[in-house]
Amino acid sequence: MNLDFYKAFGINVDLAVEAHDIVRGQMGREIPGVVVDREKYENASVTIVKVVEDSAEQLMGKPKGNYITIEAPALRDNNRAAHQQVAEILAQKLASLLDIPEDANILLVGLGNWHATPDALGPRVIDHSLVTRHLFKYAPEELKGGMRPVSAIAPGVLGITGIETAEIIKGVVEKIQPELIVVIDSLAAGSVDRIATTIQIADTGISPGSGIGNKRTVINKDSTGVPVIAIGVPTVVHAAVIAQVTVEHFLEQLQANPMLYQIYKNLRPDFTQEVINNVLQPFAGNLMVTPKEIDSLILNISKVVAGGISMALHPSISAEDYNMYLN
Predict the structure, then answer these.
(1) pLDDT tens for each residue of 54-70
(2) Hey, where are the domains in the chain?
(3) Where are the alpha helices (DSSP H) in the chain?
(4) Residue 94 in contact with residue 108, Cβ under 8 Å?
(5) Opening angle at CA 187, ends 277 and 206, nearest 5
(6) CA distance 135 to 143
(7) Do 156 and 113 contact (CB within 8 A), yes or no?
(8) Whole-number Å distance between alpha carbons of 260 and 295
C-alpha cells in the first residue's frame, strides 16, 4: 500500500515505523533527514526512528523527534517472563528519553474511553500505575530512595465529559505544575499483526483519536507548556486497510494465472478503491476492526506498559516493591 491509498481513505498512520516504511517504499530509497536504528532482544525487537529535518517531517507527517517502537508478538501469549522482559525494555527506552531531575514531578494521563475496550488502554494503564505524589505529603516513611512524585488521571473523552481532554490536562498542569507529562493512548495500526504486540514511545506528544478519524487538540509541549512523552499501543485496524491487504494477496494468487491477472489489469486503476468505498459506505468509510479477545489483550498489555513506566520513573523500585505499593 502506498501513501495515495491512505490519503484516499483519510487514514492517519499512528506508528512512525509504518509511516517510514510507506514513504520509503514510495520513494524507493532511504528518507533524507530520518535516522533508523534497530535492536534485537530475546522476546522483542526495537526500531528507533529519529526525524531530524523539516523535509522528513513533511514527508512522513510526523513531528521532528524520537519514535521508539517495541515489537513483541509474545505480548499476546500468557508468558510472564516475556512480558517482564518487554516491560524492562520499555522502562529502559522510556528512561533514555527522560531529561528531568531525580525529584521531578510527573503527571501520567490515560487517554481514552473506559467504556469501549479497544479505547480503554489509557485508563487501564492508570489502574496499574504506581502513583506516589500523595505519599510525599501524607506518608513519607513509606517512600524509598529513587522514587519520584507521580500523579495520574484518566480524563475520559469529550463524549463522556463534554470537555476537551486537552482542557482538562491544562487545568491539572496549572494546578500541580509537573515537569513532565506521560500520556498513554490506544492507536490504530496498518496491520492486524501489530494489535497488542507493538508499543510506540514518542517524545513529540500526541494527537488523540487521529488514527480513527477524530480530530482533537494536540497534546504536546506547545499546548501544555510541559514536555510530553506519548506511549501508544495499536488496538484497532482500519477496515479499508484489511480489505486492501486482502485484495493484494488475492492478486498475488492471480498472477499464477496470466489470463485472469490480465483481466484485472484491464480494469480501471481506481476500481479496487471504488469497491472498498462501496462496502464501507454505511460507516462513511470509517470502520475500525478489533479482535474479539481484545479484553484480555488490553488487560495484559496495560500491566506491561504500567510496569515499564513505573520502573522508568522509579528506578529504585523492584518488581516486588512495585506489587507491594499497588496493593
Answers:
(1) 999 998 889 999 999 99
(2) 3-241+284-326
(3) 3-8, 16-27, 54-60, 80-97, 121-127, 133-138, 158-161, 165-176, 221-224, 239-254, 258-265, 271-280, 294-313, 319-326
(4) no
(5) 115
(6) 7
(7) yes
(8) 42
Helix or strand holding residue 205 (H, E): none
327 is written with which cell numbers? 496493593
Cell reading at 281: 459506505
pLDDT tens sequence across 112-143:
999 999 999 999 999 999 999 998 888 887 77
**What's the pTM?**
0.89
Contact 165, 158 (CB under 8 A): yes
Cell 499476546 found at: 76
Q: Residue for cell digits 498512520? A: 13
CB proximity list for 199: less than 8 A, separation 6 or greater: 69, 70, 72, 86, 90, 231, 232, 233, 301, 304, 305
Determine the residue type at 157: V
List the grid coordinates of 268: 480501471
DSSP H helix total and E strand total for the chain: 14, 9
User: How far is the C-alpha of 53 from the C-alpha of 244, rounded, in Å?
Assistant: 32
Q: Is 3.20.20.70 the CATH classification of the domain at 3-241+284-326?
A: no
CA distance 229 to 231: 7
List, in order, residues 6 or more apart from 324 with CB less than 8 Å away: none
